[in-house]
């Protein structure tokens, strides 16, 4: 494919799930940038690094690779480890560090330079890939996003409450939108899709229908 697709949105809006399926349907490469920040967060917790300087140094030395649906850090498969509650509660703090965002952005742009990439995150269409040919911004009401995250964590065997998840998401939204460097915002040329009360398939169809209208040869 001679184009890239950027999919942004807040926590729990469904962007990773949608981006992954769209990439499969379009035979493109899926890159979960949120997982990359989670990987650095996991690494910092695992190695007991707490200062910004130490975490930045850790990031500079880290080897991050994405192979299909799995993410590796220093040749270790951390696909499942990065989804634990401790990482979830700390990733936004790590992602706010400008030096780390610069390093991650450089790596993400390198991954997308040959086109054919579906990349999701919070600043893809506005900062990482501002020249992406197609941009989508997925959102949903907070209670629905909280329910989705709650069900995901419960299935993963974690003991959490819906109320706590809702509070965490509100806090995460605030941090993502108010961070000084590359905050969560809607790109001016993005297609906004409210996923509230929509199934995964319905949202995927909406994205693919838009691409088909633009003449990208999508088979629905």
The name of the CATH topology is Rossmann fold
DSSP summary: helix tally:
9
What strand line-up does the widest sheet have? 2-6-1-7-8
Strand fraction band? 15-25%
Radius of gyration: 17 Å
Low-confidence runs:
none
Helix content: 40-55%
In CATH's first tier, which class applies? Alpha Beta
CATH superfamily: P-loop containing nucleotide triphosphate hydrolases
Number of self-contained structural domains: 1
Number of strands: 8
Cα distance spanning the termini: 17 Å
Q: Give the CATH architecture.
A: 3-Layer(aba) Sandwich
For the sheet with most strands, the description reads:
5 strands, parallel
Query: Structural class of the helices, strands and pairings?
Result: alpha/beta
Short recap of the structure:
This protein is α/β, with parallel strands linked by helices. It is built from 9 helices and 8 strands. The strands form 2 sheets. A 5-stranded parallel sheet has the order 2-6-1-7-8, sandwiched between helices. A 3-stranded antiparallel sheet has the order 3-4-5, with helices on one face.
